[in-house]
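Standup notes, structure subgroup. Blocker cleared on the adenosine monophosphate input:
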Amino acid sequence: MGNIKDYHIATLGSHTALQILKGAKDEGFKTICVCEKGSERPYKSYGVADEIISIDSFKDYFKIEPQLVEKNAILIPHGSFVAHVGAEKAKDIKAMHYGARGILEHEADRGKQRQWLVDAGIKVPKIIKTPQEIDRTVIIKFHGAKGGYGYFLANNEQEFAERIKEFPENDGFVIQEYIVGVPVYAHYFYSRLTGELEIMGFDKRYESNADSIGRIAAKDQVEANIHTTYTIVGNTSLVVRESLLTGIFEMGDKVVAQSKNLVPGGFYGPFCLEGVIDPELNYYVFEISARIVAGTNPYVNGSPYTALRYNEPMSTGRRLCRDIKMAIEGDRLGEILG
Ligand code: AMP
Ligand code: AMP
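Run returned:
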């Protein structure tokens, strides 16, 4: 039987690192936090890192990777890894790392993501192919836009033509039907070891300035020429109407089943379906994150859903580390490393 004392859990110091490292310690692991110089303080203050490795930029990750390999560290890739090191670099990771091989590439590519959802039978917002075909309210999303910055809405071709002038140097965009409803981000965990899909919780994002526009009158919005942006600032917790849960479990099952056609053996671990629920209770999903999402951060101590299932605080970060622990102790580590 493997012993978890022979391993470290490591991650980059941003996004969900506090939660992951706390969860790792709660499961009995030693931890390493790789920080950008000047960003070490939270990881020291909250006492989650047994060791801190500082680098100038996350882009230098590969320079310190040999230290992780030497310490038998298992790296947990999260949103900051994808954003700062790059999903395409995930295949160059030499350190042991959690997650299905090749899956981060699906998450980084909007077209591939959408195909995954559509093939799984999930409702997605309609794509409008050309500006001439805009016949409803649409959202224009630029490729590679960090955190929704610069997205804009249009109701017809003329409005589109007017607004797109402000972005002469864009790298391309998609035009998507704008769904009027409330945002709901569903957090799941699928374990390859137990074969079970769990709903870990839900969040709703707090985005600037989208979540503040309602604080000023429509007339002032127009006069001040304020445009909606969706820069993520934080997340708030949420529970959904209980009768929605059955459908949300089924959506998770479908995504997991379809992933078997995308990567060998299928996808496992934490993932998130990000969408909007309309007044008819249709759940339109516009994005899938095939890794831990920061919306799980309100639940370091567990969510109302994990409280139902576990008699101890169970964050998504801790659940993930428990999967690793089970794998080590059951000599099945190969099944959960990318
Ligand atoms: P950061 O390390 O804060 O620059 O975040 C890396 C990436 O994760 C960015 O693309 C962010 O948009 C995303 N991200 C960070 N924090 C959150 C959050 N609380 N909710 C959703 N996405 C986030
Ligand atoms: P994304 O970059 O795809 O995560 O989108 C950023 C934000 O834009 C989301 O959190 C939503 O608030 C909003 N959004 C994106 N797509 C849609 C859509 N089709 N309908 C309504 N709101 C959307």
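Discussed briefly. The pocket of adenosine monophosphate (ligand 1) is lined by residues 14-15, 79-80, 83, 146-147, 205, 232, 234-235, 294-295 (CB under 6 Å).
Next: hand off to the docking folks.
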